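pls design
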């Protein structure tokens, strides 16, 4: 039996697609130039190696697939940044105090903490910032179970982790929340 041939659909081209790629390449080149300027100074921007690196960064942004947009809630970023700066400062003071104390008041241990953050940028940021909390270091992540090394097992590490998780959850839109809202669930 002969199959009827169906015409193949014409390939669609989107009007703004070329411009968005060009914009992405330009933004990447500007970001690379800015980073080079910050690290090496304005005179180094005209060096051949700098120009090559900037052009290669722009070309790479054209050749590599675009990632998903970062689902940030800008209104929550100041609170997260404030928490981050405060925790970094207090973490540094705590470790310095412990290191300079002749009694070396530490009770190191490994703790586990189960997070409900979505995989991707929220969980990656959580793991990075955990290491800035006083006396903590993220060691391993298995699924959503995080293993931490702490300097003082008697400290309220669990409370600090819960606060950090809440701040990060507030800063990112979780696609699971939208799915739950679509199904009529309430938060």
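designed seq:
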């Amino acid at each position: 039996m002969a199959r009827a041939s169906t015409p193949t659909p014409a390939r669609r081209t989107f009007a703004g697609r070329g411009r968005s790629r060009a914009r992405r390449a330009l933004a990447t080149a500007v970001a690379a130039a800015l980073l080079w300027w910050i690290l090496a100074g304005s005179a180094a921007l005209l060096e051949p190696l700098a120009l090559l690196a900037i052009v290669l960064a722009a070309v790479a942004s054209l050749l590599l697939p675009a990632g998903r947009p970062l689902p940030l809630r800008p209104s929550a970023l100041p609170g997260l940044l404030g928490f981050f700066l405060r925790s970094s400062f207090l973490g540094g003071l705590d470790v310095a105090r412990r290191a300079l104390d002749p009694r070396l008041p530490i009770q190191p241990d490994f703790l586990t903490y189960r997070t409900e953050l979505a995989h991707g940028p929220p969980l990656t940021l959580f793991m990075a910032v955990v290491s800035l909390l006083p006396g903590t270091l993220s060691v391993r992540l298995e699924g959503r179970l995080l293993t931490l090394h702490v300097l003082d097992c008697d400290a309220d590490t669990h409370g600090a982790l819960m606060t950090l998780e809440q701040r990060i959850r507030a800063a990112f839109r979780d696609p699971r929340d939208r799915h739950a809202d679509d199904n009529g669930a309430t938060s």
